[in-house]
Design a protein that fits this description.
Elements lengths: L3 E6 L2 E6 L6 E2 L1 H15 L7 E6 L4 E3 L1 E2 L1 H9 L4 H4 L1 H11 L4 E5 L2 E3 L1 H8 L2 E5 L3 E3 L13 H9 L1 H10 L3 E2 H7 L4 E3 L4 H13 L3 H15 L3 H15 L9
Parallel strand pairs: 2-4, 3-6, 4-7, 5-8, 7-9, 8-10, 9-12
Antiparallel strand pairs: 1-2, 10-11
Helix pairs in contact: 1-4, 5-6, 6-7, 10-11
Length: 244
């Protein structure tokens, strides 16, 4: 039995991570997540949005399992195991469906890096975030040094990465790490309600918009605009305008 559970309703696939005692992300759980995302990617007819959730109160993902770091330090982490993080987080970005990380509590290290690979981020008022690796003599290894500057800019990202400081939900919102802060009480339902607004939009347009934003960022402006034009032309036949 794995550490992820899946519940699908109203075009939303909820992926809930529960690994006692404190939701540290291990290699098996990363592989499990990757497999689930690959399956969801094939279900564009009935799944429009993915919600990442936690089944442990007060923690989204605490950080990467310390055993991964011990093995890396000892040189016993295989090349295949070393691909687990980029594979799972890369799928969060590359599957057609927008992925929303719903953070209710701690998201440090690999936990924050997982949210950064998501398309959108919702936090409860009690949530807190950190890339604490610098304090232990290492740097983020799950994409933090690359995705965080692209999300919030070089200066603010360098501040968080070089200090390792912890920030609360309001500062994370001000910096642009999270899209919205919701009350802690009733957070799970509020987050699902917030996500529902996406499912009201036609799925082909949702998928194309995600691709245009994420893939376009990796391209020079002229190439990004060309990508946008191509995706726009692909969505027109399925849009409301096709029926006017």
């Amino acid at each position: 039995m794995g550490n992820w559970t899946v519940e699908t309703r109203n075009k939303i696939a909820g992926l809930t991570f529960s690994r006692l005692p404190d939701n540290q992300m291990d290699l098996d759980s990363l592989s499990e997540l990757a497999g689930l995302l690959e399956e969801i990617a094939r279900r564009t007819d009935d799944i429009s949005v993915v919600l990442l959730k936690s089944g442990i109160d007060g923690i989204f993902i605490k950080h990467a399992d310390l055993e991964i770091l011990r093995r890396a330090a000892a040189g016993t982490l295989s090349a295949e195991d070393g691909k687990a993080w980029p594979r799972a987080l890369g799928l969060l970005e590359s599957i057609p469906q927008p992925v929303i990380a719903t953070i209710d509590g701690q998201a440090w290290g690999g936990g924050l890096e997982t949210t950064l690979a998501s398309t959108l981020r919702i936090a409860s008022a009690r949530s807190h975030f950190s890339q604490p690796e610098i304090r232990f003599g290492i740097i983020p290894g799950g994409g933090g040094t690359q995705r965080l500057p692209r999300l919030i800019g070089k200066g603010p990202a360098a501040d968080l990465i070089l200090t390792g400081r912890v920030i609360g939900a309001d500062e994370a919102h001000r910096l642009g790490i999270v899209n919205v802060v919701l009350p802690t009480e009733g957070f799970a339902q509020l987050a699902e309600d917030w996500a529902t607004q996406l499912t009201r939009n036609p799925a082909p347009a949702l998928f194309a918009a995600k691709r245009a934003v994420l893939d376009g960022l990796a391209l020079p402006l002229d190439d990004g605009l060309a990508l946008e034009r191509d995706l726009f032309q692909q969505t027109v036949p399925t849009s409301v305008f096709a029926h006017l």
